[in-house]
Design brief:
- The chain has 299 residues and is of the alpha/beta class.
- The chain contains ten helices and 13 strands.
- The strands form four sheets. The chain has a seven-stranded parallel β-sheet with strand order 3-2-1-4-5-6-11, with helices on both faces.
- Helix 1 packs across helix 6 and helix 2 packs parallel to helix 3.
- Bound molecules: NADP nicotinamide-adenine-dinucleotide phosphate.
- The site of NADP nicotinamide-adenine-dinucleotide phosphate (NAP) has 27 residues, from helix 1 and strand 2.
Length: 299
């Protein structure tokens, strides 16, 4: 009999990539706000459910009894969270707390997705043991979520990616798809050159999540690429990988964008622990972009 995994936010970028990772040998139970994008595949079952409905959520988990739960769902609009803080704290803080409590009661391991935004972004890259100091409502709400799951007493892994990119269907926002679209249509773009991090490729993150579950590797894990670069340099690398001219990519500063929420400028995640303890190779951005190109079937 197949093992089963429950994925919240299954229609999102990471949710879709996790489905790719587990679909060959797992029964998949997904929840999201929107209808399933997976069509009728025998072992993928998706229900529409607002995770804030704790009673329905608990009923669903008791019914499905998954072997593990992966919580990717989140309120991810960083600027809007400054105004919608109640929703951000509900989805990013209280929902993970409820899921973790249900996991504890039903002895189900939980993988929860957090973010590098739990750090101030003043002195990255960061290790798992560094002190968290979230700035802005999205970041504070994500930090409250990871604290709640870590304190729940359940078997929990918290994985922190940063600037996640990858391939998916019907995504509301995707940096790579947007950039490729603009460059192919010969439109110039402005990209910040003062925000540094080591972007996380969603397809490989999904395989990291699988390793964490298979090895019962509970605790906090950082995952990104080998080198820390500015978003501008990342955009140049994307253009280069996909054979597009970078002449239309212009460097700007974060202050030029006048965004509502603060952004970490010196971020990034040190991934040594994952590499040493779980034997997961940490790849360069160019290597991972080449994998993405292959995944997108672009010649
Ligand atoms: N993307 C990044 O750059 C990045 C970086 C660091 C960390 N992370 C973290 O990684 C995780 C996955 O990110 P992602 O980019 O895959 O996010 P995503 O594409 O926005 O997917 C999240 C999914 O969760 C759904 N969702 C939101 N609220 C929900 C609710 N109340 N009930 C049920 N479903 C709900 C969303 O639906 P709607 O779209 O309809 O709201 C969406 O389908 C998140 O925890 C995020 O904080 C992401």
């Amino acid at each position: 009999m197949n093992k089963s995994v429950m994925i919240t936010g299954i229609n999102g970028l990471l949710g879709q990539n996790i489905v790719q990772e587990f679909a060959s040998d797992h029964d998949i139970y997904g929840l999201d706000l929107t209808p399933s994008i997976f069509g009728s595949v025998n072992n993928i079952h998706v229900n529409q459910l607002d995770l804030n409905d704790t009673v329905a959520l608990e009923e669903y988990i008791r019914l499905v009894k998954p072997d593990s739960i992966i919580n990717t769902a989140a309120y991810t609009n960083v600027d809007r969270a400054e105004e919608d803080q109640d929703i951000a704290f509900a989805v990013n803080g209280q929902v993970p707390a409820s899921i973790a409590a249900i996991c504890k009661e039903n002895e189900i391991p939980l993988v929860h997705l957090s973010t590098d935004y739990v750090f101030s972004g003043n002195s990255g890259p960061y290790r798992e043991t560094d002190i968290c100091d979230a700035r802005g409502k999205y970041s504070e709400s994500k930090l409250s979520g990871e604290k709640a799951v870590l304190e729940s007493g359940a078997e929990v892994a918290v994985i922190r990616p940063n600037v996640m990119y990858g391939h998916g269907e019907q995504l509301k926002s995707s940096f790579v798809a947007w950039l490729l679209g603009e460059l192919r249509n010969k439109r110039s773009v402005r990209i910040v050159d003062d925000q540094y991090n080591n972007p996380t490729y969603a397809r490989r993150l999904a395989s990291v999540i699988r390793s964490v579950i298979d090895q019962k590797a509970w605790g906090i894990w950082h995952f990104g690429s080998k080198e820390v670069v500015s978003r501008y340099t990342f955009a140049l690398k994307i253009a280069d990988t996909f054979g597009l001219s970078s002449a239309l990519i212009n460097a700007i500063s974060t202050v030029d964008l006048n965004q509502k929420a603060p952004r970490p400028l010196r971020s990034g995640l040190i991934c040594e622990k994952l590499n040493k303890e779980l034997n997961i190779p940490i790849m360069s951005i160019d290597e991972e972009l080449a994998l993405l190109k292959e995944e997108m079937n672009v010649s």
